[in-house]
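The freezer alarm interrupted the setup, so I double-checked each line after restarting. Inputs confirmed:
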Amino acid sequence: MLELTASQALGLWHSVSLQQVRLDGRDLSLRQLAILLEIYLVPPPHTVRGLAARLGVTKPVITRALDTMGELGLVTRERDERDRRNVVIKRTINGALYLEKLGDLIIAQGRALTP
Amino acid sequence: MLELTASQALGLWHSVSLQQVRLDGRDLSLRQLAILLEIYLVPPPHTVRGLAARLGVTKPVITRALDTMGELGLVTRERDERDRRNVVIKRTINGALYLEKLGDLIIAQGRALTP
DNA sequence: CCGCATCGATACGATAGCGTAACGAAATTG
DNA sequence: CAATTTCGTTACGCTATCGTATCGATGCGG
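Predicted 3D structure, all chains:
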């Protein structure tokens, strides 16, 4: 439970977006970031189909995002041995670190807010 | 000044990103959103050059983003009559409404946080 | 004036993402 | 087992954005 004023809310988004653009060359899209956060903040297992439904997008969108973020080392894929049609998305150290930095950035910018 | 825990920070970003992807078809990139917030939250005047420096990106990035967001009615451009080399970026009703909705979304998701 | 700097826009080739449709592999069903 | 469903991926054509380089227009300084 977190009470925010309109000024605080947009101010926070502003400063964090700004720093994210300036500091992080990876330039993840909003969709990619949403997928990444979903994978790391919601209990597994995560599948392509499940993520697609959750975000309200088509499956190729998820596949592509996983391709890209996989190359960046932010996630991994493994076949589900119990049902080999499925692919289970796994977290990585790199991904956890990436989100930890994002969290630190949000906290820092929240602290620096002058409402 | 806003005190956030790591869980709150990422949880907030998660839920807002998720809703933004689900509800807003416009799908602004992080760069575009950062530009938009800069225009609306920082006192004018705003120029292409200034925004480029502020975000740490090249000028064509700003021009393209303004093209796109202009078509969406989120910003407008006007030549600066005092120095006709400059272009001054103006806010629009539509843009203000868009950010107001975003603010509402952030506030609502902050309120719904279960830390 | 006339060079020179500055501004935003444009051209260019390359890359990434999109939605729709179809595919192969694997599981389920009757 | 054959037929069907389910799952993730790939193919396709299209659009948007990227970075670099350059452009035309405008202002400025000697």
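Quick read of the result. The longest helix of chain B spans residues 93-111.
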